[in-house]
Amino acid sequence: MAALYIQRENKGASWQVWPAPDAIPPGEIREGASYLFELRECDEAATADLLLDDAPLEALRSLDLRTAKWRWTPGFHAGVADAALRIPGAGTRHFTITTDPDLRKLTRDDFDAMVREILEDTFALFSLSAFRTGIARQRGNQPPPLARLEFLRSRCDELLQSVDAILRSPRHFLCAEQITLPAHQARRATGPEILKSFRAGVIRTERPGLSRLPQALGGRLPAHITVRRHRNSVDIPEHRQIKACLRSWAAWLSGIAETLAKAEPSDDPEILNTAGHWAVRARHMSRKLQSTSDTGFMSDVSEGPAALQMSSLFRNDPVYHRFYRLWQDMNLGLAALSGDFLQMPLARTYELYELWCFLRLLRAAVQEYSLDGITLDSLFTTDAVGGLTLQAGAISVPLGADKALCFQRQYKEYWLAPDGEGSFSRTMVPDVVLTGTGLGDGLRQVIVLDAKYRINDGLNDALNSIHTYRDALVREADTGECEGIVTAAYLLTPHVPATDTDFRTTPLPGRLFHPQYRDKFRFGAVTLRPGMSTDELRGTLQTLVADATQTAR
Q1: Which long-range contacts (CB under 8 A, 24 or more apart) does 39-43 make?
Q2: What is the Cα–Cα distance from 446 to 469, expressed in whole angstroms?
Q3: Hey, how many other C-beta atoms are within 10 angstroms of the C-beta on 301?
Q4: Alpha-carbon Rg of the chain, whole angstroms?
Q5: Each residue of 392-448: pLDDT tens digit?
Q6: Of 49, 174, 364, 435, which one is least surrounded by beta carbons within 10 A?
Q7: Angle of CA points 269, 272, 275, to nearest 5°
Q8: How is residue 297 annotated by DSSP?
Q9: From which domain of life does this come (predicted)?
Q10: Cα separation of 99 and 77, whole Å?
């Protein structure tokens, strides 16, 4: 029987991926490596094709006529890849391959968390701006950005799992209903029900002879009797809302699929998923959601509003609460929010991390330094139909009159800069800069923060950037000499370090996080990880400012 296997190039272990996929251990299939697919025991192996995300793989020569081989190099792509095996005479077989992130990075779940928190931070900051308008839902005739499609795809899979859990054990309630039955079928009718039925309908009279009716009825009986029955029902408001949401999302995704199918594919080589490919994915998600809305007891649920209302069931039942949380995520993904940062696939997570760090720190700074003098209008632009665009380049947000938080501020050569501050070599663009005189000691501070979506040993290679920023950003003094303007430089990373008592005995990269090291050199790294609470973010901001404003030793 034909079967398809995958194995690491130049390594012996292999796993079957079709027709009965094996459980592949986490980390065995990851980005940045090279793998071989091998189709075995297939009479049509010589003419078979294998495609991943609609791209044909490199075919290799095989000495066995019943075996076909392909080489696959995922590159910097972590996530789910759609595979198609085409065998002449046997049709096309579809399956998926999940690629784990490189060990120096985090997981796909962190990508989803960053997209969710960017959207949440955007809405929270937008509410503090001068704009007095709501954020509309994305219209179905406009293609959404790739990052939101990636996010919605992962939420969709979780949604289906949560609905399956509800379908296995739904909440019921005892429902009373009035039904009208022919007299000979109403065997359990009570006296009051029979008497009430005399008020309407045909009354039948018993033939002369021995009567089988109670004497009080006088030989008369209604032709139809209305009785009251109790039955278990699943037609509760929560189920009606869930069903309506599933159908609403299915309709929205169907419209997006049609729009993407008509759109021109992107010319950006880094955008691995074309519009046509995402149209297929959106249509597939739409069908699954629509099918789920009519599965099991859902077919007996009536119509309701396509919005969840918090109730004791959504609050207290873990299964229903999970659906409510995912409903909130879907609302974030469906909102009419756009921006250049959303036009990136999972392969460019590091760019998303840079903006995520800025928005997380900005939201923490708004809470830390109060609202007086903070202007957030430069972050957003709106359109007439309620859409919101987040600006994501060369942004400077004033935090009062004496400090500001900048994202991707450009430092040109210092002799070309209007304020006389810049680089002495080339234009430099640090990810985040916190600057001003209102950071605690009364002196002007320039704290450079470089976001690096790396962990473990990958951080060692990232030190060059903050060394460069600290040494190359200068201004011209009154004497004509150049003097540095950077008072502190730190890496922002999701890495969680292990440190010793003394920073001198702590190996890299843990040494960079050591409080003594940061305090002594005003240089190092801090942890900024998806999922951190608001209090943790404020604590991180306070730590950065405290380290940077200490008196030099």
Answers
A1: 39/2, 39/3, 39/4, 39/5, 39/67, 39/68, 39/69, 39/85, 40/2, 40/3, 40/4, 40/5, 40/66, 40/67, 41/1, 41/2, 41/3, 41/66, 41/67, 42/2, 42/66, 42/67, 42/68, 42/87
A2: 11
A3: 22
A4: 32
A5: 567 888 887 788 889 888 999 999 988 889 999 999 999 999 998 888 777 889 999
A6: 174
A7: 105
A8: G
A9: Bacteria
A10: 7
For residue 297, give both structure tokens.
Answer: 């007891």
Distance CA 327, CA 245 (A): 8
Interstrand relation of 35-40 and 445-451 (parallel, antiparallel or unpaired): unpaired
* Residue 27 and residue 13 in contact, taking contact as beta carbons nearer than 8 Å: no
Per residue in 141-179, pLDDT tens?
555 666 667 778 778 888 999 999 999 989 887 766 788
Residues of 140-175 as b/e, b for ≥16 C-beta within 10 angstroms? Answer: beebbbbbbbbbbbbbbebbbebbeebeeebeeeee
How high is the pLDDT of residue 313? 92
Q: How far is CA 531 from CA 34, 100, 455, in A?
A: 32, 19, 16
527 Ramachandran zone, left/alpha/beta (phi>0; psi -120 to 50): beta
Q: Are 475 and 421 in contact (CB under 8 A)?
A: yes
Report the SS3 class of residue 425.
coil
pTM above 0.70, yes or no: no
Conformation bin of residue 420: beta by default, left when phi > 0, alpha when psi is -120 to 50? left
Query: How remote is the C-alpha of 114 from its chain's centroid?
Result: 7
85 phi/psi in degrees, rounded to 5:
-105, 115
Name residue, tokens 């009606």.
240
Torsion angle, alpha carbons of 214, 215, 219, 221, to 10:
-40
The two beta strands, 388-390 and 337-338, are parallel
Question: Can you tell me the distance from the alpha carbon of 350 to that of 451, in angstroms, rounded to the nearest whole number?
Answer: 8
Q: Which domains does the chain have, with CATH numbers?
A: 3-99 (2.60.40), 137-169+235-334 (no CATH), 370-384+393-548 (no CATH)
Write the CA distances from 498 to 29, 463, 503, integer angstroms: 27, 18, 11
Residue showing tokens 């003097």: 483
Between strands 488-493 and 523-527, the pairing is parallel
Residue 37 burial (CB count, 10 A): 24
Say if CB 478 and CB 514 are below 8 A apart. no
